[in-house]
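Lecture notes, continued. The same structure-token format from the folding unit now serves as the input rather than the output. Read the line below as a description of shape only.
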């Protein structure tokens, strides 16, 4: 086990608990951004000023979203002074680099998602490529199912685990983060994979299950509405909590070396002098 992984889970939870205001900011800011995005999609484009409002509003929503998550990665880095206001101020200049990372991440994720439309063809081709003695023992349905789950693993696990730490480094070190070796540390740590799995279950699987939960017994419409609101609200809180924990875990693994710790201890004389 790497020395910087000692107490990894405990340190991650400690820094998240000490940054409860960051969690609250995410709860409020992401909710407002979703509401703003909903009303942005409903802006008509019948006149010139409405079209201009659509362009300006889209840029504003994208800017605030990128700014929020860039500052979050900066806040959880070991070099941070654990002040979200300072992280917001220092992360503004890194938004263009983080935007480039976001476009690459989203584009590759979209490409992987397209494979779901061809999972049966991929399964059939893979079965045809098998040796004859294996082909007779493996049914086409098995290969179709295997190809579907492989695409699922690439989409939800492998690509995010590979590329999210790179985004964290870009959010902290600007364009230099694209070729920073610290981005590849989390991939080599089994405990980080397990942490990602736990965050995925809490922040994705459980909210999805709550959102699609069907009442077993008939109930009045008012009760169903309250049930849906509570389930969606609780699922949203789980999603935000899992994301904040994952951000902290990524930075804990990536920056867990002597160089980062030294950088973190340098600002103290400057703070005293000020």
């Amino acid at each position: 086990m790497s020395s910087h992984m000692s107490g990894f889970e405990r340190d991650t939870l400690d820094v998240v608990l000490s940054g409860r205001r960051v969690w609250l900011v995410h709860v409020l800011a992401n909710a407002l951004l979703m509401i703003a995005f909903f009303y942005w999609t409903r802006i008509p484009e019948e006149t010139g000023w409405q079209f201009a409002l659509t362009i300006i509003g889209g840029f504003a929503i994208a800017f605030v979203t990128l700014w929020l998550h860039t500052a979050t990665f900066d806040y959880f880095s070991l070099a941070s002074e654990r002040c979200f206001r300072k992280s917001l101020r220092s992360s503004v200049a890194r938004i263009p680099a983080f935007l480039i990372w976001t476009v690459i991440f989203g584009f590759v994720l979209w490409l992987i998602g397209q494979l779901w439309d061809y999972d049966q063809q991929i399964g059939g081709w893979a079965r045809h490529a098998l040796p004859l003695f294996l082909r007779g023992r493996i049914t086409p349905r098995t290969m179709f199912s295997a190809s579907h789950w492989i695409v699922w693993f690439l989409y939800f696990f492998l690509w995010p685990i590979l590329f999210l730490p790179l985004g964290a480094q870009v959010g902290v070190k600007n364009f230099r983060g694209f070729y920073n070796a610290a981005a590849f540390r989390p991939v080599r740590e089994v405990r980080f994979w397990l942490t990602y799995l736990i965050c995925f279950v809490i922040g994705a699987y459980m909210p999805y299950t709550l959102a699609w939960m069907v009442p077993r017994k008939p109930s009045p419409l008012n009760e169903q509405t309250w049930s849906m609101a509570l389930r969606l609200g609780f699922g949203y809180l789980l999603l935000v909590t899992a994301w904040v924990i994952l951000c902290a875990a990524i930075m804990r693994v990536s920056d867990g070396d002597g160089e980062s710790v030294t950088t973190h201890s340098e600002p103290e004389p400057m703070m005293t002098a000020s």
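Point for the exam: Confidence is low (pLDDT under 50) at residues 258-274.
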